[in-house]
Design goal:
alpha/beta; ten-stranded mixed beta sheet; 13 helices; rod-shaped
């Protein structure tokens, strides 16, 4: 009875050990049937199979005498190669080479294919993991890969491809490497949006930078051969330039990073392409921060910022223009803000280099005309302009004087230009000689002009009405170019435009007794002269006639009369 009780546990242990042995045997059989066959895909030297999308040399092609232009490789049982095919021989070769959609071939390299169009809808592509078509002549790629296509590495380089259909590659969700180099593509075809894709588009002479930019925005890209990748910027497809330029990929990536890392709530875009001798081209930047409730000008602008738009904010000062990030700024639009003065512009690089300064509809009260007087309006710089419309200035005698002085300086430059034109018309001698003599005094070279006041004196001392009229009209024409909204600048306390200020009215001082001091002095001098004349006359009569005339004869005798006697 005791032996029976000990025998039963022993029998259970033996059965459990037998079960473990059976499971171990089944596991070994599973490994033999599943894992080992997949190892057969790799050749003895696996670098010749799956290196860069399974690329095979010309020596791997079928012999020229072979009727079947495709064959499976002996050292890579799931890899095949096709060579020197066209539309018909490719279809026949895939069939005779036993390359079909059953998954027996996962890596395929087609060399020297001559096709008008590569059709991607064929079922045979669906089970491929590595698909390479190189060194051929293919005009376009049509159709699209079927859904659930497992291609992860696609190499279509060196085929002269010009165009892809829009949805050709959208179903390649496993795609990790795409080589489209050495073709004639102008646009990068669309592909999956998730994951990192290594993309090669070098040596496509017609590739547009706008397409590369869109590709960077759609997915995360690592570029292959980026140092030899260039693109074109065209006026129709890439609206940054007026001409077509060949740009390196690094510039496009820089522009993409510029947009991604722009100031908060602002937009950054390329403005134009700057060419510097012996240096690569550099993009200048346009920053738009309009309508975002800024209280001051933004600082730390992107490098090479040349254009800044901060309209429709609550900015009160321009002092940030002295920041180093503003050193290349040429265009500043700060309309519809609360700016009260342009004095912070003094001493900034912007005042020497600017093309456009727009401060319309602000709170500017003081017109620092000495700043504007120092602006150089060169003949070749007709685009330089200042917009100050809808500002109501505090107008006084100083404003009228300084504004007049500014006008005379502009007149001088216009007159100089007029004389230059006149001198080119010397064949009309009878008309030219009069004008030339009339304006010669005003057209001296700038280095011969002593001061700005000298020009002012020349114009004011000229009694000729026609000269003043010509000067006034010339200034208006110039002001239309550089101050296009001058008619909208008005005075704060009076309903008058700044261009209509009358210096004689604004420069009148309040009258007091000192205004009559010259009259009083004149009267005293006249009275003193009359008194001296009367005394002299009385003395002459007394010496000649012996009596004093009236009223000296009626005057009482004084103690000091004895001195006269």
């Amino acid at each position: 009875m005791v032996a029976y009780k000990n025998e039963r546990p022993l029998r259970v242990i033996i059965n459990f050990t037998h079960l473990l042995q059976m499971l171990h045997i089944h596991f070994l059989v599973y490994l033999l049937l599943t894992i080992l066959p997949t190892l057969c895909v790799l050749p003895e030297d696996d670098s010749s199979c799956y290196h860069q999308c399974f690329h095979q040399p010309a020596e791997a092609c079928p012999s020229p005498e072979s009727m079947c232009r495709c064959r499976q490789l002996p050292n890579c049982k799931r890899a095949a190669v096709c060579c020197d095919v066209n539309k018909f021989t490719l279809t026949e070769g895939l069939g005779c080479g036993n390359i079909n959609a059953d998954g027996q071939v996962e890596a395929l390299h087609i060399r020297n294919a001559t096709l008008d169009a590569l059709n991607l809808t064929q079922p045979v592509w669906r089970r491929l993991r590595y698909m390479t078509i190189t060194n051929g002549q293919i005009n376009s790629v049509v159709g699209e890969f079927a859904k659930h296509t497992i291609v992860s590495c696609l190499n279509l380089s060196s085929n002269g491809i010009r165009k892809f259909e829009q949805r050709s590659l959208v179903n390649l969700f496993n795609l990790s490497y795409l080589d489209l180099s050495y073709n004639n593509l102008s646009e990068v075809p669309r592909f999956k949006k998730e994951g990192i894709v290594t993309l090669g588009v070098s040596d496509n002479p017609s590739m547009l930078c706008s397409s590369l930019m869109d590709t960077l925005k759609r997915t995360e890209i690592n570029f292959d051969n980026d140092n030899s990748t260039f693109c074109l910027s065209s006026p129709t497809n890439f609206q940054w330039f007026k001409t077509i330029d060949r740009l390196p990929l690094s510039q496009v990536i820089g522009l993409y990073e510029l947009e991604e890392n722009c100031l908060e709530n602002c937009t950054c875009e390329p403005y134009r392409l700057e060419f510097v001798m012996d240096k690569p081209p550099i993009f200048s930047v346009a920053v738009n921060c309009s309508g975002i409730k800024l209280l001051s000008l933004p600082t730390h602008l992107p490098a090479s910022t040349i254009y800044l738009n901060v309209t429709n904010n609550n900015i009160t000062s321009l002092r940030e223009l002295s920041d180093n990030s503003y050193q290349y700024l040429r265009h500043l639009y700060a309309d519809n803000n609360q700016i009260s003065s342009i004095q912070p512009l003094e001493g900034t690089k912007f005042m020497n280099n600017f093309d456009v300064l727009s401060l319309r509809n602000n709170k500017i009260k003081t017109f620092e005309t000495y700043l504007l007087s120092n602006i150089k309006f060169y003949r070749t710089n007709n685009g330089r302009r200042i917009n100050l419309g809808l500002n109501k200035l505090h107008c006084d005698c100083k404003t009228a004087k300084e504004f007049k002085r500014k006008r005379v300086k502009v007149v001088f430059k216009i007159v100089e230009l007029v004389v230059a034109v006149v001198e080119t018309l010397e064949h009309i001698y009878s008309k030219v000689i009069v004008i030339k003599q009339k304006w010669h005094v005003y057209a001296r070279p700038h280095h011969m002009l002593q001061t700005e006041e000298e020009v002012l004196d020349i114009v004011e001392d000229d009694p000729s009405t026609s000269t003043r009229e010509i000067a006034r009209q010339s200034w208006l024409l110039t002001k239309l170019d550089h101050f296009p909204d001058y008619e909208e600048i008005q005075c704060e306390d009076m309903d008058v435009k700044i261009t209509e200020l009358d210096q004689t009215k604004l420069c009148q001082s309040q009258q007091d007794w000192t205004d009559y001091i010259y009259y009083i002095i004149t009267a005293e001098v006249l009275l003193l002269g009359g008194l001296i004349a009367k005394v002299s006359y009385d003395y002459w009569v007394f010496k000649t006639a012996g009596y004093l005339p009236w009223p000296a004869s009626k005057m009482p005798k004084l103690p000091c009369d004895w001195l006269c006697e």
